[in-house]
Amino acid sequence: MAKVRAAITGVGAFLPDYRLTNDELSKLVDTSDEWIMQRIGIKERRILKEEGKATSDMGTWAVQDLLKKTGTKPGDVDMLICATITPDMILPATANIIAHKCKIHNAWSFDINAACSGFIFALSTATQFIESGRYKKVVIVAAEKMSSIIDYTDRNTCVLFGDGAAAVLVEPNTDEMGVMDYINRVDGLGRHHLHIKAGGSLKPASQQTVLNKEHYLYQEGQAVFKAAVSSMADVAAEIMKKHKLISDDVSWLVPHQANMRIIEATARRMGLEKDKVMINIQKYGNTTAATIPLCLWDYEKELHKGDNIILAAFGAGFTWGSVYLKWAYDPS
Fold first, then answer.
1. 195 is catalytic
2. Beta bridge partners of residue 18, listed in sequence order
């Protein structure tokens, strides 16, 4: 009997209209287009400007796009997983809100908080439910309104992040297509270098925490960069070695879009030329959990059934991981 694997069978997305350029940022903080492009590789990032709109709205629009593209009825979805670190509110889960807005009433849903590794952790989780035979249609949506937790007077973070959402449909496959394997890792010591200081049970919100700007993202750039370069490259190389893959076997690397130097280091470690690496950081910046599925959405027409694809990410926590999958469908 053929093994059941979890295959991505469609991709949808949503991006806000507003483009925050490097030139505009240079009016807010001491930076320049040249500085950002040389060190990070970002030209512009999308920002959700509409009043009263949140992460769940972008996630909803991405899921609706996915359902329309794949011809999937909301009532046929068994599970919805939302990868996000910018939930609409501490509770309930943003996944529940998205499911409600999409009229997905026959599924259960929950959030995964793994920062930039969120999509990989969510795909690994969905894989278990598909492979067990318990569910047939799982929607993963990665959605982030990073602009809501960024201090636009902090040059260390404000140049990095953008808003956006992307969603994938995961279904059973018995033709040796889909997720072949994954490796996920965490190191809680990393929390000291990348976190939000206040707003949780350790340091509840107060007038003082607001005045001290402790509800914005805090990052120690050099420590995070060093850990990201080694961990993301290591785990991508590890999954290749485990499955005896050489660079010629890999059709695409889909790396988390945090920094061009991290992306290039990962590709070098895998022995891949740039034309095998999905890159859109210049257009969208770091959309955290949404970067990898946004790459799949951007490059969907270039993907073919049977392509060997390696996903790799590194995020706050620290979290990192890699997925080896075979693409399950040809361009429409």
1. no
2. 47
Q: Is 295 a catalytic residue?
A: no
Three-class SS of residue 182? Answer: strand
**What kind of architecture, by CATH, is found in domain 180-326?**
3-Layer(aba) Sandwich (3.40)
- Interatomic CA distance for residues 160 and 153, integer angstroms: 13
Q: How many beta carbons lie within 10 A of that of residue 152, not counting itself?
A: 14
Told to judge if 158 belongs to the known catalytic residues of this protein, a careful annotator would answer no
Give the position of tokens 């040059």. Answer: 155
In this predicted model, what pLDDT tens digit does every residue of 207-264 receive, in sequence order? 999 999 999 999 998 999 999 999 999 999 999 999 999 999 999 999 999 999 999 9
Of how many residues is the chain composed?
Answer: 332
CA distance 274 to 280: 13
Q: What is the architecture of the domain spanning 5-175?
A: 3-Layer(aba) Sandwich (3.40)
Q: Give residue limits of the domains in the chain.
A: 5-175, 180-326
Q: Which of the residues 22, 96, 102, 116 is marked catalytic?
A: 116
Task: Tell me if the pTM is above 0.90.
Answer: yes
Catalytic hit among 22, 184, 259, 286:
286
- Average pLDDT in the chain: 97
pLDDT band for 332, please (50, 70, 90 cuts). Answer: confident
Residue 168 has pLDDT above 90, yes or no: yes
The closest of 44, 64, 80 to 287, measured between CA atoms, is 44
